[in-house]
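Task: encode each sequence below as structure tokens.

Item 1
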Amino acid sequence: MKKIIFSFVALMFATLSYAQIEGKWKTIDDETGQAKSIVEISKKADGKYYGKVVQLLIKPEHANCIDCKDDRKNKPILGMEVIRDMKKDGNEFTGGTITDPKTGKTYKCTITKDGDKLNVRGFIGFSFIGRSQTWYQVK
């Protein structure tokens, strides 16, 4: 009986952790293919997920987001919240936004997890009009 309970509990934790995006993720520059930054995603008290830049791996052209249009305008990229208001919807995270500090543009966002990778898609309007990136889990 103990083995059955242990197996059930282990299976529950594996299922719950499968689609979790909390943790640190390495972003890759689209143009150069180099690792660009580390973004830490966490769940806040409101039940939504947010991601902030906790480390820069390459020196950006500007240290601040000079082209941001909201409360992030002229704020340092390091420590900036680039993912906001993501909600878990099955195995996908949706409903939030992602901001590109290089351009200052904010996009709707969907995130799916595939093992130790995140598929991050930023888009305007419809999901097929956008850009995808793969982020890699930092262990």
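Item 2
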Amino acid sequence: MTKKQTAGRDQLGDFAPQFAALNDDVLFGEVWAKEDELSAHDRSLITCAALMAQGLFPQLKAHMEIAKTNGVTKVEMVALITHLSFYAGWPKAWSAFDLAKAIFD
């Protein structure tokens, strides 16, 4: 991920500065930046899968947008959701498809 993330500071910087710094500097600045281990594309797929499985749809929406930026295609996202529907639950898949349609169409 080449774009520097500032969402933590933008949304929580004044309210929860330590959490904001951990989000921007550690999670996105260090973990996501280790593309020699996993590409941003693959990290996006993994992250979207984890968020869908947990039913965390506001975060899933944000990460689907990041995934699209990281080169995840509509075909890949549809396949991810379809596959996970059997493991994470059919209703979660329906909700995830609503998000994916808005982002990838």
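Check on item 2: The longest helix spans residues 17-31. The helical segments are 7-12, 17-31, 40-54, 57-69, 74-88, 90-104.
End of task.
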